[in-house]
Design brief:
Largest sheet: 4 strands, antiparallel
Number of strands: 4
Distance between the termini: 5 Å
Strand content: over 45%
Order of helices and strands: EHEEHE
Shape: elongated
Low-confidence stretches: none
Number of helices: 2
Structural class: alpha+beta
Helix content: 25-40%
Length: 85
């Protein structure tokens, strides 16, 4: 199975979704390379970047689940790097 490296950019505007967001990320933990979160208090948002190495359908599913949370936006940027698992 081929995997791709990607980054998922997440903006959290509704803090009530944070617990569910963290649960989703935990479920996909085996694919996560690293994660960085920045609270932007002046604008009352949280900015999270998640680097992943996973099959493309897994990355799309993760990004879709995150984007369906209330007050959460998620966008994915894929690298051209594909590797066989």
């Amino acid at each position: 199975m081929k995997t791709r490296v990607a980054i998922i950019g997440i903006i959290v505007e509704d803090e009530t979704s944070v617990e569910e967001l963290n649960a989703i990320l935990h479920d996909y933990g085996k694919y996560i390379i690293g994660r960085m979160g920045i609270p932007y208090r002046a604008k009352n948002v949280n900015i999270i970047s998640v680097a992943v190495d996973a099959p493309q359908d897994v990355i799309s599913a993760l990004s879709g689940k995150l984007g369906r949370l209330s007050g959460v936006s998620a966008k994915t940027a894929y690298s051209n790097v594909e590797t066989a698992e």
